[in-house]
Design a protein that fits this description.
Elements lengths: L13 E6 L3 H12 L4 E7 L2 H11 L3 E5 L7 H10 L7 E6 L7 H7 L3 E4 L4 H12 L7 H14 L17 H11 L4 H8 L3 H14 L5 H10 L10
Parallel strand pairs: 1-2, 1-3, 3-4, 4-5
Helix pairs in contact: 2-3, 3-4, 7-9, 7-10, 8-9
Amino acid sequence: MSAVPPRDPNVRCIRVLLADDQALLRSAFRVLVESEPDMTVTGEASDGAAALAVVRERGADVVLMDIRMPGLDGLAATREISADPLLSGVRVVILTTFESDDYVVESLRAGASGFLGKGAEPGELLSAIRLVAAGEALLSPAATRSLITRFLATGERDGAGSPAADLDVLTAREREVLVEVAGGLSNDEIAARLEVSPLTVKTHINRLLTKLAARDRAQLVMTAYETGLVRPRFPG
């Protein structure tokens, strides 16, 4: 086994909480996370109630949350984390079996920042943690299309997003950026498409988050579809 890289005291470690009812998976995740010099495991939990207790006691930047756990499940725990102002800096990545999981839309509404399949490669998991910790949304284009299709097909629009009038506060460029965010594009991809710098895109996204009172990019995606700014393209 290769040695764990030494931690740089000048680099802030991303604190990760592992919430899964399978001890073997938690152990594998811990070994992987602890192998990185910019990450540390702040605790483990086998159900949602324990996850809440640990995150409130020890803190965390990112919670890897299994959606199906005994007692308080991952969905309910995510909802409680998102509703607690003292935990506003905590980001949740839901662990799913399939990108088209039936809980996807409900999880976004509960405050999840993204989704990751349990069969993901180690590098994907580590990238996901860094991405979400940096404030990005972990929503692949495939997952985005799936969740929006399900959302519109079931007509579930109650209290999930910003009213259409809220978009009146956006500039034309901010609307363009919001459309691209809803397509699951990264900052670099949006910058290339709109022919601006990634820093400019980041500035626009920060303004979108403020103006639309959105927690993160995942909520921006939901708002874009719920207000009708973007509509899904169904295969012909």
